[in-house]
Amino acid sequence: MYKRQTQQSRKQAGNPLWNRYQARDKWVFLCQENTDRNWSRLCQSFERQELADDARFATAEKRAANNAELVAVLDGVLKERKAQDWMDRWTPLGIVASPIQTLKEISEDPQAWENDYLVKTHCGEVNREVEVRGLPIRLSKTPGSVESLGPELGQDTELILADTLGISWERIGELKERGVIP
After folding, report:
1. What is the pLDDT of residues 103-154, one digit of tens each?
2. 3 state SS of 101
3. CB of 40 closer than 8 Å to CB of 46
4. Model confidence, pTM
5. In Å, what is the CA distance from 93 to each residue of 23, 30, 86, 89, 136?
6. What's the distance, Cα to Cα, between the start and end of the chain in Å?
């Protein structure tokens, strides 16, 4: 049976090694299974032997039980360096992590363009090509594409009310007069 997941504060992460942290300049996403080996490599990257020796975090079970404390500790440690400095330390150690890009950074990311997460399409309003979000997923049998900007807000309201909901044109006129619909 499906169990509904509720949103949880990152400060209460069940696995503090799989969480978002603020580096000195931007956020990073650390993606490590809560194992002793991963914890040891992370402590090595921090150059903090006292963390590796801390009894509160000595096992996966203790790290999970003391998750709020560990998140607070990691918050403090990760703020000491820039995101790229952490990536430079973590990559050779096999620690999986990534900086979290801002929308501006994503718009300039060649990989986002190559994967069609961002595309260009014609806009009749300004009569030129504009940059828009692409489709976030690809399906092999029904691959979608962005070929226009889509309707303007409220552009099809009257047709939907009449054709789909069966509301009379007279009633639609009344709704427009009262300002209920544009």
Report:
1. 999 999 999 999 999 999 988 888 999 999 998 888 889 888 888 887 888 8
2. coil
3. no
4. 0.70
5. 18, 13, 11, 7, 31
6. 44
